[in-house]
């Protein structure tokens, strides 16, 4: 190679992007949706896709040897050619507003916490970086739709996987576990008047000014200031579910359904991202982690999900909010078609289902094709970064944008590409 050709080649190499997905051409071609809010329903434990949104031929855990397959018969839906399990009859009638992403996959199946983290952040746990959750990224990029409410709320138990990571406390969540009481500590005692609150804040101000900007105390002070801003009757009024018609509350169902109803009220109040955890109390003994005997009562979870999910879709549609609100159903991994020794199922990451609904997307009932045992992807694989990129794009967030961890740029997704088939 002569000197001129060498210089031309090295110049081209220097101009090329470090990662193939980060090209400006790709960034310009990212679809941009019109959703304003996201309700992220979390099914902790690992929902069995073969028993819910990707049904296959019936199996038999009682046979000798056990026959691999779905635990329940499949039923038709409002989308021709798309079926779901028989315990999702209400959802089946609304599948024109839904896409079951049947080919989501990852390789973290042995440990629930690691899998929960990768589904929430789109990345593996790192020894030197705490990556932000999808909720915190949306809060960072879009903020609250109304400044009188938080950008990000969690109805469930807190942990680091749902947190802001390197984005800092300002972009974390406000959480609650009781839909009736709302977040703890946001209701002032009756004897503490607004005048007394103002006096207390005035006393705090000289101390707050001494806090270094880039310190843990500064993060704490930010959280404290936000809590003081939200404390009081205006914000807490959003948690008065008894203001809703009894017929609507009954349609949503039990405890989980009331959380979903609350999420709709929070959308109306201006909260940008709400995560709703299902089955905090393990109504079937194991939650969605259906090893061994947990499988026997799995249908109770599916029925509760069906009632709440379908009511949420219908309620948002009736209030002209469905196109503005993306509903996502996430879980840490799926389940194999084979039954274990006591009739349950193990873990599977080669393919599993997560779900999107509403949000102004072009829904098709189901996306992706799996084999006869819902074990391998045959068509249209969806990586977790792709799933995250689809949610971000639906909310008008560029998934290729770089956030800053100190001086280090970190793309919003780890090379994720939105599923273009869902965008007009």
From TrEMBL:
Pfam families: DUF1501, TAT_signal
InterPro entries: Alkaline_phosphatase_core_sf, DUF1501, TAT_signal_bac_arc
Superkingdom, natural source: Bacteria
Protein name: Uncharacterized protein DUF1501
PANTHER family: BLL7424 PROTEIN, DUF1501 DOMAIN-CONTAINING PROTEIN
SUPFAM superfamilies: Alkaline phosphatase-like
Keyword vocabulary terms for this entry: Signal
Signal peptide: 1-27
Protein's UniProt keywords contain DNA-binding: no
Organism field: Roseimicrobium gellanilyticum
